[in-house]
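Quick note —
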Amino acid sequence: MNLFIAICIAQYGENKNSLLDDLGVRVVKPLVVVANHIHVCLMEVQNTNLTGKLLVAMPGMGDPRFEHSVVYISSHSEDGAMGLIVNKPNQKLELIALLGHLDISAGPATPEVSVYFGGPVEQSRGFLLHSVDYIGDPDTVLIDSHFALTATVDVLKELAQGTGPETCLLALGYSGWSAGQLEAELLANGWLTCEASPEIVFQLANADKWAAALASLGVDPMMLSAQSGRA
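Predicted structure written out below.
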């Protein structure tokens, strides 16, 4: 059973900027030259699979929902991408209250698990991003050697009993990109990408994750600007 939680949170519109607008292209050369350049860049980006990586929002990316966000990419293919924001806690809900909404009893063994704003898509749906020690649920998706994803009520029941994954975070909603959309945002300098580590995703304070992700690339946040290029 998919994990659905009846919570009303404001919905947001889609950013409909064109690729040329996002790239800031001024057509001062023949359009075919610009188009060929964009095509080559898109081909390079499209050949990179970001599953299991982190997206790090660049300053001035133009979407306040993702300002200073760190997004764990759980799935990426030619059809699109899906990820969870891992540094924006949901201020309106705690795990104990959420379990109550689902008629799941919490007890002494129930761990402290943070609830996050995972993204603007399907914000009534829950996703548990966790360590790979828990693979008991048949619907658990093993992403790599460090991370797995489960989106069922059963995993919350086990979590409440203290038998769930050792390390995890719970996200409401997710971040989604249609085919080619994430690649265009990367070309528009909206994101940097870096390796995902359990330390950044699970252990660091939320306020420190963005800077830590940049530091893993050797990037000083103070040196960034809205005009910075993609590393």
